Amino acid sequence: MIEALVALIAAAAVAVAILDQPSMRRSVAMAVAGILVPVLIAGDQWHSGPITELRNTPGMLVVALVAGLALVGLLAWVIDRWPVILPVLVLVAVPFRIPLNVGGEDANLLVPLYLVMGGGVLAPLIRARRGDLLPATPTVAPTGLARWLKPLLAAAVVLYALGLFYSDDRSTGLQNLCFFLIPFGVIFALMAEVEWTRERLRILLGVVIGLALICALVGFVEYATRDLLWNQVVIRSNDFHVYFRVNSLFWDPNVYGRYLALSITMVAAALLWARSTRDGIVLAAVSGVLWLALMTTYSQSSFIALIAGLAALVALRWSLKWMLAGIAVLAVGVVLFGTFAGGLVKLDLGAINKQTSGRANLVEGGFDLFEARPIYGYGPGSFSVAFKREVAGPNAPVTESHTEPITVAAEQGLIGLAFYVVLIASALAALLAGTRKVMPGLGAAARSYDPDRGPPAARAAMLAGFIAVLVHTLTYAGFLDDPVTWVIIAIGYSLAFPCRATSAA
Q1: What are the start-end ranges of the H helices in 392-442?
Q2: Cβ partners under 8 Å of residue 248, min gap 6
Q3: Among 87, 168, 250, 288, which is least packed, fewest CB within 10 Å?
């Protein structure tokens, strides 16, 4: 219970960071959250192998702490001197996870992003002591459902922490909170106050393209040599399949595919609003290379996410009505096919479950768990434990949920599911704010521009990227525990409701 109480304090500190204006109070809150996270992890994993090894070798522990603090201090100095470097460092660090052993299992942790977060937290403290921390003065205030976005994000973190008091797997829930929700909440607070200019957005697009091409190159080499850098599960799987999946610098081909799908969506947004033929040719060539790279992942969820993101861009650039009409025709076609071909095509549920790597059973089991505890669920991080105990037995081959709404419903019940749905609606409202004035597909003139709302291409990219991530989480999970979600929402929010007087002004 003590761990859950400390975790709640850390979550409350993140809530302050998300909701408060740039100030010494908010900077201290972010620092408190950053300090409590390693304390909580050390307490939870005190008797695990890595922590025991560090305790038994104090010299190694001291060296690790000194090196980490020195790197955080250096990053803080760089960010304090050149504040615009923060979003660049965040985008560089977001994709990459380092495999580590936590709790007796392999975990892929965003160590580079945690270091950037540390520097981002320390830099405002330095500025606050000098009196250089400027208050946020948004030129456009959020209204309607959009104004609830920040409170809902803060409440989601606190709600997750409250669930640790009754969770059936408190350790996993605590790790999810400390490794994902708390750091990502801090990242959101830092990114949401950045003032975006065309030049800065071009730099970020260049970073996205550069990183995606590097990852694609590594993936092409893996595909050509039939040799992966890591992940024995995928390596063994490739030995039994007629196709060969690559994961590039990522641990999971589906996560690599998600990153490529998002990168293609961002490049496509720039392509659709490109003003010069040369830019259009370059962006089209980049899209083609990344598309070929995506093919090597064989990630069905990533292809679906890409289609959703591109469909959103088409709707914004040309016509929302025709896009909705096309989706309606497609839906009717699927229904008619299922109705009239039912006698000819026999659905083999067992085959479907096998083709989806056991996800059909996970969805069905998730519904069973939700029915058993519909109000508050089994607690954060408890899906795997509850699924083994209540549904599939201890020898179940697959126990990790890959469908975000099912995960939320089973772990947090109707309470968490309500927060999940309203949060998505609020995020969409924020990302859509003011788009009617600049999106031709929503009725605006072809070259419309609202100086108070950010460039249309960037607005479209963030909205389409969020839709792509949302769709991907329906088949592969990872909504609030993916930093990309928080970064996209933060950039989209700060474009829709820009702060003119910020630490990055």
Answers
A1: 404-432
A2: 215, 216, 218, 219, 222, 229, 256, 293
A3: 288
Say which DSSP state 108 is in.
Answer: E
Interatomic CA distance for residues 34 and 346, integer angstroms: 54
Whether residue 498 contacts residue 141, with contact meaning beta carbons closer than 8 Å, is answered with no
CA atoms within 13 A on the CB side of 428: 11
How far, in Å, are 36, 97, 279, 419 from residue 170 at the CA level?
17, 23, 51, 21
Using H for helix, E for strand and C for coil, what is the string for 218-285? HHHHHHHHCCCCCCHHHHHHHHCCCCCCCCCCCCCHHHHHHHHHHHHHHHHHHHHCCCCHHHHHHHHH
pLDDT at position 49 over 70? no
What amino acid is encoded at 378 in this protein?
Y
- Intra-chain end-to-end CA distance of the chain, in Å: 43
| pLDDT at residue 502 tops 50 | no
Give the pair of three-digit tokens for residue 39.
């304390």
Task: Give the C-alpha separation, 389 to 18, whole Å.
Answer: 37
Report the alpha-carbon distance of residue 439 to residue 450 in Å, rounded: 10
User: Tens digits of per-residue pLDDT, 126-165?
Assistant: 877 776 666 666 667 788 899 999 999 999 999 999 999 9
Cα distance between residue 323 and residue 218, in whole Å: 36
pLDDT score of 441: 80
pTM of the full structure: 0.89
Check if the beta carbon of residue 204 is closer than 8 Å to that of residue 85: no
Q: Is the pLDDT of residue 292 over 90?
A: yes
> CA 316, 334, 268 angle in degrees (round to 5)?
25
Among the listed residues 136, 189, 173, 164, the one whose alpha carbon sits nearest the alpha carbon of residue 29: 189
- What is the Cα–Cα distance from 50 to 102, expressed in whole angstroms? 7
The residue assigned the tokens 């697009």 is: 205
